Each structure stands twice: as C-alpha cells, then as structure tokens.
Amino acid sequence: MSQNKDIDDAVVSGQAWEAFCDRLKQAGQQILRAEAPDTPLDRAEGYRYLTRLLRIGLEMHLEFADPDFPGFFAPSHETGKIGADNPDNLYLMGRLNGCNEYIIRGQRGTVPYLSFGTQKGGYETNGKMEQTGFLDARDLELDADGNFEVVLSQTPRPRNWVRLEPESNAVIVRQTFLDRKAERPAQMSIARLGSDAAPQPLSTERLMTGLTRTADFVEGTARLFANWAQSYLPHSNALPPSDQALCQSVGGDPNIVYYHSHWRLAPDEALVIHVPRVPECRFWNLQINNYWMESLDYRYHRICLNQHSARLDTDGGVTMVLAHTDPGHPNWLQTAGHDSGTMCLRWVGADVQVDPLTQIIKLNDLEQTLSTKALAA
C-alpha cells in the first residue's frame, strides 16, 4: 500500500494500467513520421523496436529500478537494441543513487576492451545520459587471479574508483570483443555498500512510477534516435564524423570517435567504404543498422567488421563493400533484406582520426573500380 491513496486507487481500479497503455500507443507516432521509410519491413521493424524498448524499459525502471538493491541487466543485446548498439559489445547497466556507495566485484576475463562509466539523466527525462565518472580497464588493478573490486562513490578512493555525483543514477559497463568465440568476458556483480537490509515488497507507488518512466523511456528513446536518423538523410551514403559532444551527451564512451550516417542502395548498386589508412587504435569497427538505428541481426548476417574480421588492403587501409548480394569481395557487408538504413563507424583510442571515403558503384563496375583504386576522394 502506498502512502498516497490516489495512487492506490489508480492501481486497484486499472486506471494506472490504462494510462500506461495510452502512452505506449502515443509512442507509435515515432514510427509514422513523415520522413521515416514506409516499406512493410521498415514499419514491421519499427513496431518491433517499440516492443524491444518496452522490454528494456521494464528491466530498467521496474525490475532493476531500486538503487538500494542494484543488479546488472543488459540495456542492449541481440534482441533489444538502442542507438547503433555495437554488435561487438556486451553491455551491462545498473541503476544507482548518487548518494549511496557501491562496489563492483568481478573477474577480468580476456575481452580486449572494458570500461565502467557512471551517468546521470536518461532518455525518459531530458534525452541525455551525461557521464559523471569513468574507469578504463587499462587502469584497473587486479589480483594475481585476475579478480577486481571497483568502488563507486562521491568520495575518492585510492584505487579502482569511479566517481559519483549526487545526480548519478546509473553505471554502464562496456565490454568489446574482437572475436567472441575466442575471448572470455569479465564476470561481475554490483552491490550497495553499508546496507544488509532486504528490499520491501512491491508497492503501488513503485509500480506506477515504474510504468510511467517505462512509457516515457519508450517514447523518449524512439523520438531521440528518430531525430538522429532524420539528421543523417541529407548526407546519405556518405560517412562524416558525428558531433562528438552530442554522442557523449547521450552516453557515448569517451574513448570513442563516432561516425554516423544513412545509406540507401538500389538492387544493382554497392556502397564502397574505403579508409585510406587504419590508424593505430585499440579497436575499430563498422556496422550496418536499420533505419531505427538497431544493428541488423548479427547472429545470422555479416553486418559488422572489425580489425580482427576485416581483411586490410596491401597499403594499410581497408575497403568494405555493402551490397544486397555477395560481390565476391572479402569485406562484404550484408543488407539483410533492407534497401536503406543507418550505419556507424567507431575508432576506439585512435592516435589520429582517419575519415572514410564512400562511393556508390554499380555492381557490374565494382571489380574494375576497386582494382584501379578509382574511388572518388
């Protein structure tokens, strides 16, 4: 029972549930935006996208919402995707209260890239997830067996510390693979420090708050990245650097330089993406997404390449080819039945920023064009 009788009555009568469903219906307008594609596939994926956001939102704002009893959940994964989710990543998130202190205990594993970042805000509130603290696993102190402990607090700690602000409300952990089959991810758990109490049963107030925030999350996330996709349309089939400050404001990793754009291909065309020189970096990849900025289904289609899976050119660059059918190129990226979508290139810890060149080429001319390196600068 809540201390607020109106909330109790809204839940008991069903009014709270009806309001939740009405808000979800409203989120569907983001799929019907005038600039968005209206093919059956794009519309179907758009509505499925909303159901995926709903699942993520319920995990975030109801099942794992209590910052006094945090747990890790996956905010993006194979069947739940947000904002050009990285197919080479394993994501974990925990909900926090910046006035508490927390400890993450884990085993490092062998995954090449690991980072911890605390954040404030949210797509359901101000459309931002601004960073409040960050720890790169390069600076992570381990014991002889690869175990670690990381403290999250406002008060600095001498080792393995991530800063919290009073407004901090989440921690996100990124693990990036070069080869998922060969590398072992870090295993970890999170707990609040200084409290051994057990959580209270669900209250009507917590339920209503969770449902309200979930509905806000679904609509806010859908709107945010529909706005992003719309902004890419003027430079379709090019791949310019993104506004890095904007990427960071929605939760981007500070070690990453992002490139985002839109692509569109006729059945007889290929999009060639050429990087003249791959810079020294900790990681890079290129991924193909649908219009809603969900990575295409990487379980069954080759829609992503990184420095492990891509074949480099003899001069140290890399050339990748997006096409509907196999053009016979070693770095073929599949469209998975789509004729348009979005795409993302990221450099992680690069010593310099190297911008890619792109060109639409007829499939019949592809081999000759690539053999003569006649790409337009």
List descriptors:
377 residues, Jelly Rolls, 6 helices
Task: Please provide a written account of the structure.
The chain has helices spanning 5-13, 15-27, 40-63, 204-232, 244-249, 363-371, and strands at 89-95, 102-107, 113-122, 128-136, 147-153, 161-163, 170-176, 187-192, 256-264, 269-275, 283-289, 304-306, 318-323, 332-334, 340-348, 357-362. It is α+β, with helices and mostly antiparallel strands. The chain has three domains: 1-66 and 199-235; 67-195, Jelly Rolls (Sandwich), CATH 2.60.120.600; 236-371, Jelly Rolls (Sandwich), CATH 2.60.120.600. The protein has a four-stranded antiparallel sheet, with no helix packed on it. A four-stranded mixed sheet has the order 6-5-2-8, with no helix packed on it. A hairpin with a 5-residue loop joins strand 3 (113-122) and strand 4 (128-136). Helix 2 (15-27) runs parallel beside helix 4 (204-232) and helix 3 (40-63) runs antiparallel to helix 4. The chain is globular. It starts with a helix and ends in a 6-residue tail after the last helix. The relative contact order is 0.15.
* CATH topology grouping of the largest domain: Jelly Rolls
What is the domain total for the residues? 3
The percentage helix is: 10-25%
Count of separate DSSP helical elements: 6
Write down the Rg.
22 Å
Q: Taking strands numbered 1, 2, ... along the chain, how are they ordered across the largest sheet?
A: 1-7-3-4
Distance from N terminus to C terminus (CA atoms, Å) equals: 66 Å
Number of strands: 16
The CATH homologous superfamily of the largest domain corresponds to Domain of unknown function DUF1214, C-terminal domain
Class inferred from helices and paired strands: alpha+beta
Name of the top-level CATH class of the largest domain: Mainly Beta
Given as residue ranges, the uncertain stretches (5+ residues, pLDDT < 50) are: none
